[in-house]
Amino acid sequence: MLTRRPIAAYLVALVAIAPACHAADGRESLDATLAPYLERDKLPALAAAVAVKGEVVAAGAVGTRRAGEKIPVTLDDRFHIGSDTKAMTATLAGMLVDEGKLRWDSTVGELLPDLAAGLDPGVRGVRLAQLLSHTSGLPGDDEAFGELLGKSYLQEGNLDAMRTWLAKEYGKRPLATKPGAKFAYANMNYIIAGAAIERAAGRTWEELIRRRLFEPLGLRSAGLGNQASLGLVDAPLGHEERDGKVVAFLAGPNGDNPVVLGPAGTAHMSVLDFARWAAWNAGGGRRGPALVRPETLARLHAKVIDIPARKGTAPGTPTIGGYAMGWGEVNVPFSREPLLHHAGSNTKNLAQVWIDPRRDLAIVLMTNLGGDRADDALKKLAAELYGRYAGSAGRP
């Protein structure tokens, strides 16, 4: 007796047995590799790309923008990258260091002189490099941080004024540890660093990241905040799992991080543009555009401190290895040598970037679901893609 298989399962199986396809420009399609993850890990959508020596050699995007509806994603769809934005903020800081407008050892008191008198003495002495490496001594995100985020929206002015207010209020609290002594992942580090960048450059962080990073790199899909437009499903919606159901979030106040968190994690872009950003980093500054000096990029990538192993942290929060400035360094079973890595999540989306600088290899992964299941799926996919492409990448 013949039975009718669900259409979605049939399509997944059909894609899985299809031969490798290539785009007109020779780029390999990863759709057949990605499709099984949709059903096995219950992801609404999944996108991935691989770049070798500056060229995107493989990419794919499968699934739907909104769970329960057939709105196929494409390679041009915008996904949220969460805390993967931090490496971009650190790069902006590096630009200003190269220009002599900032120093790595500049203290918060020097960076924000009009706030200095009201800051805790310990906070006043924290250095820019310590903010960017989460070694400032500030406590991790806590209830007090959440309360201040809410109150920041009652302040007048543009986002830079709101960030300055946050720095002033949060900076009244004493440090949890001595600066430079321990790693503690805190979004407030990047809000303060963002406020310092804004002060030094004379523009908001949002203007700077668009003009000085997105545009020079040609990241045409890149933007900030909700990846979908208000009232539209013109990009993959973020999803959360609630009571066993996958719930979609339209653009709105609950669809993304508060916009004041920009320097810590509000960027979105297509998987192809995410791969271009990762490939630029994988090249170590040897390829254009010359955003920062190669030695500055090397410093951003260099491990500053070891991360104490922790369990139970939310996906997107570094838990093992070491931390540089906006980048983590991890040892994983599928690579003999440490990789640069970061993950980002606003709890409704998840993105990961993996870089092997020795091979000039970059892998980026994006899904529109937050949580541990999505995190496990992306890590398995990273291992699969690294195993497939690392050998062919060789060494520069």
UniProtKB/TrEMBL annotation:
InterPro entries given in the database record: AmpC-like (IPR050491), Beta-lactam-related (IPR001466), Beta-lactam/transpept-like (IPR012338)
Keyword entries, A-Z: Carboxypeptidase, Hydrolase, Membrane, Protease, Signal
Signal peptide: 1-23
GO cellular component: membrane
Main localization (coarse): membrane
Enzyme Commission number(s) from the entry: 3.4.16.4
Enzyme class of the recorded protein, top EC level: hydrolase
Beta-lactamase-related domain mapped to chain residues: 30-380
Subcellular compartments: Membrane
Gene Ontology molecular function terms on file: serine-type D-Ala-D-Ala carboxypeptidase activity
PANTHER family per the UniProt record, alphabetical: D-ALANYL-D-ALANINE-CARBOXYPEPTIDASE/ENDOPEPTIDASE AMPH (PTHR46825), PENICILLIN-BINDING PROTEIN 4 (PTHR46825:SF11)
Protein name, as recorded: D-alanyl-D-alanine carboxypeptidase
Organism this protein belongs to: Aquisphaera giovannonii
Lineage: Bacteria, Pseudomonadati, Planctomycetota, Planctomycetia, Isosphaerales
